[in-house]
Specification:
This protein is an alpha/beta fold. The chain is built from eleven helices and twelve strands.
Amino acid sequence: MIELIPAIDIINGQCVRLTKGDYNQKTVYRDSPVEVAREFDEIGFKRLHLVDLDGAKSKHIVNSLALHHIATETNLRIDFGGGIKTDADIETAFANGADMVTIGSIAVTNPDLFISWMEKYGAERMILGADVRNGKISINGWKEDSTEDLLPFLQKYINAGIVNVLCTEIAKDGTLQGPAIELYSQIMEAYPHLHLIASGGVSCMNDILALDKAGIPAVVFGKAIYEGKINLKELWDWQNA
């Protein structure tokens, strides 16, 4: 059964979603990310994908207070990403209640630092962020495309011990046009033991059913919740039937 991970993205302390990672295509859905997290918790969800979009843009953590409040006021296991660039940033994330951290840009720009974090905190607490645009890994809040191709990038870190990968197809993200199942299936075919978390494009419950049928281990979804296209209670009941 696929693992269900609702998402909260934060800008200026508010719960927002972008379209294709474009900060100029921002929709504010709720003023309090903590209230949204409480609702996920009350339904029964166990995990939360929390993204500091201010941090991703600023290249350092900005919304640590929101992380702290969600961690202390809910039972959710939080994976936190956005703006983790230094030892101080990752320490801030864990000190404020993150159970896991999602690291993307640093894995591209400073592989030695990323591997040192894996060794210090444990590979099981690290999620490799693989944000893909036109087959290349994108970094720094999706504002820059690197020269890294997806599968060799994953192979390098699988060899180093990474188990968890969050892959976002940027062209799909926030579009509600369906997830990149073919891309995720290719990854799973190449690396069947990977705990792959699919992200981007989920528009309805049928998309999640299709990911589950394709054998994708986990899915992050956000905009479909806030646009009312997914009933979280129905989804939770399906998973726990």
